[in-house]
Amino acid sequence: MKTLLKLEELAELLVATVVFAHLPFAWWWLPALFLLPDLSMMGYLAGPRAGAASYNLLHHKALALAVGVLGWWLGQPLLLLAGTVLLFHSAFDRLLGYGLKYGTNFQSTHLGAIGKAA
């Protein structure tokens, strides 16, 4: 099952790459914006529950798809770019085993423990 889940994440990563390739932005935009969703970890400065909430918001694929579809529907390439970057980043994180966070601590994810807790 773990292999199947990783293949699914890889497929989402490739879909995001294909969508990005059709956007009117230079190739370097994707790697330049790649870590931007991780700024949500600053929520952990307010505690583990706030950190988990902010992290999960920007790493949730439904948000990525909603922003991307809204950008496509409105004809706004920047919104489509934002949704694509969010999807690419989230799929890449999950491919590496980083899941959505529980409010207890950063190492507790829906995919299991990460870091020293693993």
TrEMBL record:
Per its UniProt record, what InterPro entries does this chain match? DUF4260 (IPR025356)
Q: Where are the transmembrane segments?
A: 12-30, 63-88
Q: Name one Pfam family in it.
A: DUF4260
User: Which controlled-vocabulary keywords does the entry list?
Assistant: Membrane, Transmembrane, Transmembrane helix
Native species of this protein?
Hymenobacter duratus
Q: What is this protein called?
A: DUF4260 domain-containing protein
